[in-house]
Design brief:
50% of the residues lie in helices and 11% in strands. It has 460 residues and is α+β, with helices and mostly antiparallel strands. It has one domain: Cytochrome p450 (Orthogonal Bundle). Strands 1-2-8-5-3 form a five-stranded mixed sheet. Strands 4-12-9 form a three-stranded antiparallel sheet.
């Protein structure tokens, strides 16, 4: 590609590293308001362009994706996630995508609906037991326990929920540590150097490695699995003509499964926690949701077959994902000089695409900070740019688990809302912690405390 010329994009003077570390999602919104849809800045030693308008993001993710690679900001993730769909490019990524894709086909995911309903019923029952004394409980921990159970049953054919008590703290520690690797000084140290940071990272990862090794060993003992869960496809054991040579190596398979496990349960669990918390804070929306689930479900939990009639439930989930997108930042590195929005992006620089900021763009969303599920009605969605809403990204690197996540969220929200009211604990303001996902928390504690209150069931 020939050398490209063009003006520099506007942006702040000085280095934005401190603001990025302190609160990058809100910094992204502020920069968009002040400088526009493409902003040039320095973050540590790196030149970065923030892009927030969907047409500009489309250029990166759809029109010219081969010029934008995962790059340096994903290198720290590899130390924990390994080499899987999240952290790889080119042929390595295509191999992981090929072995995973059949398992995530929408028709197959819908066949797994019973496992989601069962896990949602267990989540509801745990909350129901808390209605007796209204004792505060950690919503984030319960949401993560639900998503671990669904992933275990639907994709791993294993009872991963039994490991929730050790998985949750290990993941929380590990994700915090890899975000520290965004610090340029930390990035220079290889993971084998026995610093305190690296020792903690290794200990956290070893918990997950042990659990996944047990799952892999169980599948290898069983051999051919016609149903073909995710583990079987990774190992080349799926289908009637089983051949391990068609799969990945054991190490590659474990890395691929690690990515799915971490990304899948963390992002969906975070999204469920935000949705249930936001309902607790918006009683008018909650009552309308309850009216819908009462009419559709009666006194039973939600199933996949119910979802077409749970239209308001779907809009509640969509609006929660708009306000609190589970992945709040998509970074890429520029391979060759390019021009976006009339401005030159030099090779070797980076691009930040922020769903958090795009979902708050005042030209795309009316009253963007308000929780308003009805903005997703057909009438109000008409005319909105197609990619203004991107909680799962878009293009060839769109989240492979999008359909699974949406089904899990709608089934859990409807099932819980059918049986209990959730109430925030007074005097405990909720904010977020921007790590890999946008986790809700009541600082200094890592979770969110709510109380559960009984609802009267139809026919009771």
């Amino acid at each position: 590609m020939p050398h490209v010329t063009g003006p520099r994009a506007p942006g702040p003077r000085g280095n934005c590293f401190a603001g990025y570390q302190r609160d990058h999602p809100r910094m992204a919104v502020r920069l968009q308001r002040e400088y526009g849809d493409i902003v040039r800045m320095r973050i540590g030693p790196f030149l970065v362009h923030q892009i927030t308008h969907p047409e500009l993001i489309r250029h990166v993710l759809l029109d010219n994706p081969h010029n934008y690679r995962r790059g340096r900001f994903y290198e720290g993730f590899s130390a924990y996630f390994g080499r899987g769909l999240l952290t790889t490019d080119d042929e390595e990524w295509r191999r992981h995508r090929a072995v995973s894709q059949p398992v995530f086909h929408p028709s197959r995911i819908e066949e797994l609906g019973a496992s989601m309903t069962d896990a949602a019923t267990e989540l509801r029952d745990r909350m129901w037991k808390r209605t007796v004394r209204h004792e505060p409980f950690d919503l984030v921990a319960e949401s993560m326990r639900y998503t671990i159970a669904v992933l275990g049953r639907s994709l791993f054919s294993a009872d991963l929920g039994a490991h929730a008590s050790e998985v949750t703290p290990a993941v929380q520690t590990g994700l915090g540590l890899i975000m520290q690797r965004m610090n340029p000084a930390q990035r220079l140290l290889p993971t084998w150097v026995p610093t305190r940071h690296n020792r903690r990272l290794t200990a956290s990862r070893s918990v997950l490695d042990r659990i996944l090794d047990e799952v892999i060993d169980d599948h290898l003992r069983l051999g051919r699995t016609p149903d073909g869960d995710l583990v079987s496809h990774h190992l080349g054991l799926a289908g009637n003509r089983s051949d391990p040579r068609r799969g990945l190596t054991r190490h590659e398979a474990r890395d691929g499964l690690m990515t799915t496990f971490l990304a899948g349960h963390e992002t969906t669990g975070t999204s469920l926690a935000w949705t249930l918390y936001t309902l607790a804070m918006n009683p008018v929306v909650r009552r309308r949701l309850e009216d819908e689930v009462d009419a559709v479900l009666g006194d039973r939990p939600a199933t996949v077959a119910d979802l077409p009639r749970l239209e308001y439930t779907r809009m509640v989930v969509q609006e929660s994902l708009r306000l609190y997108p589970p992945i709040w930042l998509y970074p890429r590195d520029v391979v060759e000089d390019d021009v976006i929005g009339g401005y030159r992006l030099p090779a070797g620089s980076s691009v930040f695409m922020s769903p958090y900021a795009t979902h708050r763009h005042p030209d795309l969303w009316e009253n963007p900070e308000a929780f308003d599920p009805e903005r997703f009605t057909v009438e109000r969605s008409a005319g909105r740019p197609r990619h203004a809403y991107m909680p799962f990204g878009f293009g060839q690197r769109q989240c492979i688990g999008k359909h699974l996540a949406l089904l899990q969220l709608q089934i859990a929200v409807a099932t819980v809302a059918r049986s209990v009211h959730l109430h925030p604990v007074p005097g405990q303001p909720v904010t977020y912690r921007a790590r890999v996902s946008l986790r809700p928390q009541q600082a200094p504690m890592p979770g969110v405390l709510l109380t559960a209150h009984e609802r009267e069931l139809v026919g009771a």
